[in-house]
Amino acid sequence: MNAGMDIEEVLKLLADGRFHSGEELGDCLGVSRTAVWKQLKKLEPLGLPLHSVKGKGYCLEGGLELLRPETIVSGLNDNARALLLELDVQTIVDSTNVRAAERVARGNAHGYVCSAEQQTAGKGRRGRPWVSPFGKNIYLSAVWGFDGGIAVLEGLSLAVGVAVVRALQAAGLEGLRLKWPNDVLWNGRKLAGILLEMTGDVDGYCQVVVGLGVNVSMPPASGATIDQQWVDVQSIIGDCSRNQLMIHILNHLLPMFKEFQAGGFSALRPEWEQLDAYRNCVVELLTPKAAHCGVALGVNDSGAIRVRVDGHERVFSGGEISLRAAP
Predict the structure, then answer these.
(1) Are the C-beta atoms of residues 160 and 253 closer than 8 Å to each other?
(2) Angle 197-122-113 from CA coordinates, rounded to 5°
C-alpha cells in the first residue's frame, strides 16, 4: 500500500469522529503502530482537527464527510447518469481543472467529472488562487465537447451559473443571485465561482473544462485569506452533505450542457436576468486598458453585458473584464 493510499485509508477510519487506538488502526491497515503514527503525522498539513488521548487513541473531532463516488453516482437521476462518462474523485490534486485537462489530452473526455477533497493550486478567474481547504468545500471540473468551436461557447459561463443556482436551490438555498460573468452570490457575498478553459479546435470540435468551486463549510482560518466578501452553505442553511450537494450539482449541470449544446445561451437568458445581482445598478467594468462606469442593463443572447455609459448602450464580452458596484 503506498503512502497516498495509507492516508486515504486512515481518513476513512477516522471519518466517524470516534476514538480509534493505534493498535486498532494498525490492524485495520495491516501496518505497525509506528507506521500508523507516520501516516497520522501526514494529516497535520491538511488542517484537520486530529486529537489524541492517552488510553483512547486518535479521533477527528466532529468527524469528516468524505466524498464517496458510489454514493454520488447512485444518487443521480437517470438523465444525469446517462450523461456522465466518469466520476473521478481524488484526495489531493494541484487543480481539478488541471487534472481534467490532462484527461482531455489523453482523448475524448466528454462527460468526465473530476472532484477532490483538496486542491493545492486551485485557481479562479484572472489567475487568482482558489482557497481549497481539505474536505470542506466542493472543487469540481467537468468536461463537455462542442462542435463549432469557440463561437458556440458564448454565454456558457452564464449558463453554468444558472445550473449552479438551480442545484443550490434544490439543496434548500434561497436568495441566490448571479454576478456577471461567473459568480454566484448570496446577500452580495460570493458563494461559488466558475472558471472555463477550452482546448481543441477554435473553429471545430473543442472540449471545455468547466471548473466550479462552492464554499460549503469554509474554516474561518482559510476564509481569512480570501480577498473578497464570501459566504458558505453552512452559514445559510446549516449542515449540508457535500455528497448530496454534488448530486444536486451534477443533476443540473450535465443536463444543462446538453440544453446549451442544443440551443445556446438565449433560452437561458431570461432565467439568468431574473437572477442578475446588478441589473439597473451603477457598476464599474474594469478592462485591461480602462475602467467604464455606467448602469447595468442585463445581458444579450451571447451572454455579453449591456451597460449604459454616458447615455449610450455599450456591450462588453467576458475574458479579462471584471464587474463591481461603482464606488
Answers:
(1) yes
(2) 55
Q: Which amino acid is at 65?
A: E
Cis peptide before 69 (omega within 30 of 0): no
Judge whether 103 and 34 are in contact, CB under 8 Å.
Answer: no
List C-alpha distances in Å: 193 to 185, 274, 290: 9, 19, 24
Distance in angstroms (rounded) separating the CA atoms of residues 288 and 322: 9
Residue 177 grid coordinates: 443571485
pTM of the model: 0.92
CA angle 320, 298, 139 (to 5 degrees): 50
Give the tens place of pLDDT for each residue, 183-214.
999 999 999 999 999 988 888 999 999 999 99
Q: What is the DSSP letter of 219?
A: -
Task: Report whether 112 contacts 211 (CB < 8 A).
Answer: no
Place of cell 443572447: 301
19: which 3 cell numbers? Answer: 476514538
Instruction: Provide block-wise average pLDDT over 10 residues at a time, the chain (327 residues).
Output: 60 91 88 84 84 90 92 98 97 95 94 96 75 93 94 94 98 97 96 93 92 94 85 96 98 97 95 97 92 96 95 88 88
Picking from 234, 221, 6, 39, the residue whose alpha carbon sits closest to that of residue 131 is: 221
**Chain length of the chain:** 327
Give the catalytic positions in this structure. Answer: 125, 190, 324
What confidence tens digit (pLDDT) does each residue in 147-163 have?
A: 988 889 999 999 999 99
Cα–Cα distance, 317 to 222 (Å, whole number): 32
* Set of cell numbers at residue 119: 486542491
CA atoms in the 13 A half-sphere facing the CB of 122? 25
